[in-house]
Design goal:
The complex is a heterodimer of chains A (82) and B (142). By secondary structure, chain A is an alpha+beta fold. Chain A has a single domain, classed as Beta-grasp domain (Ubiquitin-like (UB roll)). Helices cover 26% and strands 30% of the residues of chain A. Chain A has a 5-stranded mixed β-sheet. Chain A is globular. In chain A, 27% of the residues are buried. By secondary structure, chain B is α+β, with helices and mostly antiparallel strands. In chain B, the strands form 3 sheets. In chain B, strands 1-6-8-2 form a 4-stranded mixed β-sheet, sandwiched between helices. In chain B, strands 7-5-9-10 form a 4-stranded antiparallel β-sheet, with no helix packed on it. In chain B, helix 3 packs antiparallel against helix 4. The termini of chain B are far apart. Chain A binds chain B through residues 5, 7-9, 51, 55, 58, 74, 76-82, and chain B through 37, 53-56, 58-60, 62, 84, 95-96, 116, 119-127, 137-141.
């Protein structure tokens, strides 16, 4: 299982804080996004926004990076700390 | 030592204690510069009644550790502390504190300014502002 976390406004849109996805073989971040959007279409606009960052195991990742079973993926809206 | 110098916490922090912790690192410190971010009551013309911060546990702390490490590497400073509160914050309460210490003032000024800008850029922390229209997530702060 691969855990996907939704922070800040994404949690409200997704309706959950995190969700597990059954990924049998490694997929790219882009492919994972498609899997998530098929499951939670309400996230489409947010996840396709250029300002949305993605992290894999708490490191910023990009669309062509690979994710696999056991990874922790998070979608990070623009930060507003400080 | 780094534990005390990097913290994301719900409870208020003490500016005096943070400065003392940094000063305790070396007698070579001759200058301390601090940045203190405070909950403000107006944003984009709207009156704010409450603020609430959340973070990505683990990743946010790692980013603050990384900012401290890069500040120590790239600026001529002796020590740096970075403290950030999460959870509900009332107007007028402290949110974030950067303490930069160096032998001479200019290095601490530069490192402190860089660190707060970098914190805002890379640290997964988000806030809601509550106005008369309700609570909204803030997507960017200057």
């Amino acid at each position: 299982m691969l855990q996907v976390k939704f922070f800040a406004m994404l949690r409200g849109i997704a309706g959950v804080e995190s969700k597990e996805f059954d990924i049998s073989a490694p997929v790219t971040v882009r492919e994972l996004k498609e899997i998530i959007l098929a499951d939670i279409p309400a996230l489409t606009e947010a996840l396709e926004s250029r300002s949305m960052l993605i992290s894999v195991n708490q490191e910023v990742a990009h669309d062509n990076d690979t994710v696999s079973d056991g990874d922790e993926v998070a979608f990070l809206p623009p930060f507003s700390g400080g | 030592m780094a534990n005390k110098l990097i913290s994301i916490q719900t409870e208020p922090f003490s500016v005096e204690t943070a400065i003392a912790d940094v000063k305790a690192v070396s007698n070579g410190i001759g200058a301390v510069v601090t940045f203190l971010g405070i909950g403000r009551d107006i944003s984009k013309g709207e009156v704010i009644t409450d603020l609430n911060f959340e973070h990505y546990p683990g990743m946010a702390e790692k980013k603050l550790e990384d900012i401290r490490a890069r500040a120590l590497l790239n600026f001529n400073i002796i020590e740096m502390a970075i403290l950030h509160r999460i959870g509900p914050i009332a107007i007028g309460e402290d949110i974030v504190l950067i303490v930069a210490a160096s032998a001479h003032r200019n290095d601490a000024f530069m490192a402190c300014e860089w660190a707060i800008t970098e914190l805002k850029r890379v640290t997964p922390i988000w806030k809601t502002e509550t106005t008369s229209k309700g609570a909204v997530w803030v997507s960017q702060t200057p």
